[in-house]
Amino acid sequence: MRVQKISLLAVAVAAGLSLTACGSSDSNSGGSDSSAPSGAASDTSGAQASGGSGGSTGATASSGSGTTGTTGSSGSTGQNGGQSGGTHGPTGSGRASGAACTTAHLAFSTSGGMGEGQLIVNMKNTGSANCTLHGFPGVDLKSKDGTDSATRSKLAAPTVTLQPGAETRFTLHYPPNNSGGSGVTFTQLVVTPPNETHSTTLNARVNVPVTENGGSGITVDPVGTGK
Q: String of b and e for 127-138 (b: at least 16 CB within 10 Å)?
């Protein structure tokens, strides 16, 4: 009987130890559940990191926008460049801007010069873009007796840029007829702009004295000189 009691006691103790072990295991299992909030914090941290990255991206986009604005402002340089080209006045000289003026895009007229023996020939740009003139025009004078060509003066030829609607001019010099005789009267001018092959004919009256050598003594200045 004593042996049986001891055996039962041993079984009871073993059972108690087993229950204790089970309780300890359950406690550890519950501890592992407490790790879930830690995982959630990690997710939150990840979300914050992602948000931070998004903020950085937004800053970069803003910076890019600023760069674009700066680039856009350089357009003013372009505008300023255009204004700089426009400073070449209708009769100004300087670097050429535009293709050579053609006869088809020029309107011609005549007017009196500053003094006796001068005839001004005006040329207006009727095109839609800038054009350039440089050099001497060709001028042939027609009378009932024939044709005479003006010779070039010794003036230097400037480069003239004509904006649409602007005009320039050149001067024709001739000896006035103060001889008392009828002289030679030219009634038409055939004008060819510099670097052009097409001409236009203008009605103009130029009376010069008759000379012994037969020459008219008429000279022409380059385009863009004189007043």
A: beebbbbbbbbb
Q: How far apart are CA 189 and CA 185, in angstroms?
A: 12
Which 8-state DSSP code applies to residue 58? H
**CA 12, 16, 20: angle at the middle one, nearest 5?**
170
The per-residue b/e assignment along 88-103, b for 16 or more CB within 10 angstroms, e otherwise, is: bebbebeebbbeebee
DSSP character for 165?
T
What is the C-alpha to C-alpha distance for residues 72 and 65, in angstroms, rounded to an integer? Answer: 10
How far apart are the C-alpha atoms of 187 and 203, rounded to whole Å? 6
DSSP 24: H
User: If pLDDT is split at 50, 70 and 90, which confidence band does 114 have?
Assistant: confident
| Residue 10 CB-half CA count within 13 A | 6
pTM for this model (two decimals)? 0.57
Neighbouring C-beta atoms of residue 14, cutoff 10 Å:
10
pLDDT (tens digit, 9 = 90+) per residue, 118-171? 999 999 999 999 999 999 999 999 999 899 999 999 999 999 999 999 999 999
SS3 68: helix
Using CB atoms within 10 Å of the CB of residue 167, give its burial: 0 to 12 exposed, 13 to 18 middle, 19+ buried.
middle
Q: CA 128, CA 94: separation in Å to the nearest integer?
A: 21
Q: Are 175 and 136 in contact (CB under 8 A)?
A: no
Q: Chain-centre distance of CA 107, in angstroms?
A: 28
